[in-house]
Amino acid sequence: MKILSMSTATSDLSVAIRQDGQLTFAKMEKNQRNHSVDLDPLIEEGLKETGLTLKAIDRFAVAIGPGSYTGLRVGLTTAKMLASILGKDLVGVSTLKALALNCAGRNALVVAALDARNQNFFAGAYRGQEAVIEDGHYALGDLLDQIQALPDQEVIFTGSDFTKYADAIKEGLAGKQVTFAEGDDNLLQAGQVALLAEKAAPIDPDQAVPNYLRRTQAEYDWQKKTGQAFEADSAYVEEV
Amino acid sequence: MNKEKDIRILAFESSCDETSTSVVKNGSEIESLVVATQIKSHARFGGVVPEVASRHHIEVITQITKEALAEAKVTWDDIDAIAVTHGPGLVGALLIGINAAKAASMATGLPLIGVDHIMGHITAAQLVDKIEYPAMALQVSGGHTEIVLMKDPTHFEIVGDTRDDAAGEAYDKIGRVLGVNYPAGKTIDQWAHQGKDTFNFPRAMIDEDNYDFSFSGLKSAFINTCHHADQIGEKLDKYDLAASFQAAVVDVLAAKTIRAIKQYQPKTFIMGGGVAANLGLRERMDQEIAALANPPKVILPPLKLCGDNAAMIGAAAYNQYLEGDFADLRLDADPSMELPYAADYK
């Protein structure tokens, strides 16, 4: 199986190709903000380097969330159009599960967390590939309480710059051994997305949307003001 | 023309709150047009919320691409190029169409064309009738109020522009004061036809020696009139208020546009954008142009082509196709893209 994977969920853009269980291309452009401009050329570079065409790809995989809202849409729009037009599989992989895989060999609880500002994180905790705290939007204090209640002694954090939270995290997890992932282990990599995509079930491109894990502030404000329940997103869009 | 091969363009438009796809043949014939509107969603907030708009665009993009091909009864093999609006508009919203179009271009190997949204709106006229150049357009919407001179199918210049609010924006803002739901234009237009111009709101810049507009003073005068009446417990007639507001808008748009037509002597006059659907404005422009000594041919696109739609993008893209004006896979959104100003712009 040939998998082309992409990650645009964080500030690091990456594309990977995995052929029959082997990673044959992986490239990351770190700390850049213009994924929409650089993604397609990077895909073309990967195809050129592996001698593949898009038509030869069996499965398009993407980090589907959480992450930067605009970034997620750049990756998913691209992946779902490719899958839809070429009639191939589309697979969405949890951004946090892919991040956690960076540290999976270390026999510890891995907490993958993306800084969502104001002491909030998009986070999930994994033992290997098993989610023990579901992907969600958590206040740091609540997240630490949940981790502290788990039996795991060793905890690794990955996915963000935790420098300014390090003291609060160590205090909240007193008694546990806390470390922070370094270098590329702290970055979302398309290679991990491709690896997880191998065994994941494909999703329908027409139904696929990013897993934002948060509605917009405007929607929460509207709900607070009107007391009304949200309808399905599709109920708000009409073909005319 | 019949001997030459037909050129089919599949176009995407997602610059604001409509996601649209279309197949256009030879820049003039709509073979399919799909428009998914988010009006019901943004009505909750009283205006377009950019993040919500982007979220809706990505929900429907693959589905409406398939529908555009199916409705036109063609496959990708019948398509010659892919076109997309790349600005101006909401950046996150534009990016959905752009990334969809680029992915489609990679998947099919078809050339990619980036289209200016405003040139698209104006070129919608090409779907109705042949445009003779030089042509002139009055482009009025929630985001723009411009008089545009078109020297040929791909060279457009602004000769008049709004200094502050767009005309459509002013409609939405006074609509809020009258308790009319967003978008307010249609209701205000209907009320205006049932009332009289009794309030004499200001006609800003109407006598100035340029083709520019200003609507913020009118908006303030309107709001002050309503607030003052509220304070003294007086109830104003909403039909007369609407008629007075609309008369002020239409007076200035018509006066300046007619003066520009007299100076530049275009062979075709086009009215485009959401506010071009306004009946008061249509009636007035028809009347004034008919009274000219040497009237240009007038093209008023039907209502469906006045709002945001991908067919207009397919029409404009065809003109660029003929000139070999193609984009590459690095095509990016340009949210504040502007047409150039004419050399004699005052």
TrEMBL record, chain A:
InterPro entries: ATPase_NBD (IPR043129), Gcp-like_dom (IPR000905), T6A_TsaB (IPR022496)
Gene3D superfamilies for the chain: 3.30.420.40
Pfam families registered for this protein in UniProt: TsaD
Listed GO biological process terms: tRNA threonylcarbamoyladenosine modification
One cellular-component annotation, GO: cytosol
Ranges where the Gcp-like domain occurs: 30-222
Name assigned to this protein: Gcp-like domain-containing protein
Automatic annotation (TrEMBL), chain B:
Residues noted as binding Fe cation in the record, renumbered to the chain: 117, 121, 308
Gene Ontology MF terms in the entry: DNA binding; endonuclease activity; iron ion binding; tRNA N(6)-L-threonylcarbamoyladenine synthase activity
GO biological processes: tRNA threonylcarbamoyladenosine modification
Cofactor needs: Fe(2+)
Record-annotated Gcp-like domain positions: 32-314
Pfam families, sorted: TsaD
Enzymatic class: transferase
Subcellular localization(s) per the UniProt record: Cytoplasm
Keywords in alphabetical order: Acyltransferase, Cytoplasm, DNA-binding, Endonuclease, Hydrolase, Iron, Metal-binding, Nuclease, Transferase, tRNA processing
Catalytic activity: L-threonylcarbamoyladenylate + adenosine(37) in tRNA = N(6)-L-threonylcarbamoyladenosine(37) in tRNA + AMP + H(+)
Record-listed E.C. numbers: 2.3.1.234
Cofactor binding summary note: Binds 1 Fe(2+) ion per subunit.
GO cellular component: cytoplasm
Main location: cytoplasm
Binding residues for substrate: 139-143, 172, 185, 189, 278
Residue intervals passing through the bilayer: none
Nucleotidyltransferase keyword on record: no
Superkingdom in the source lineage: Bacteria
PANTHER family reported for this sequence: TRNA N6-ADENOSINE THREONYLCARBAMOYLTRANSFERASE, TRNA N6-ADENOSINE THREONYLCARBAMOYLTRANSFERASE, MITOCHONDRIAL
NCBIfam families, per the entry: gcp_kae1 (TIGR00329), T6A_TsaD_YgjD (TIGR03723)
Purpose: Required for the formation of a threonylcarbamoyl group on adenosine at position 37 (t(6)A37) in tRNAs that read codons beginning with adenine. Is involved in the transfer of the threonylcarbamoyl moiety of threonylcarbamoyl-AMP (TC-AMP) to the N6 group of A37, together with TsaE and TsaB. TsaD likely plays a direct catalytic role in this reaction.
Similarity comment: family membership: Belongs to the KAE1 / TsaD family.
Protein's name according to its UniProt entry: tRNA N6-adenosine threonylcarbamoyltransferase
Organism: Lactobacillus equicursoris DSM 19284 = JCM 14600 = CIP 110162
Organismal lineage: Bacteria, Bacillati, Bacillota, Bacilli, Lactobacillales
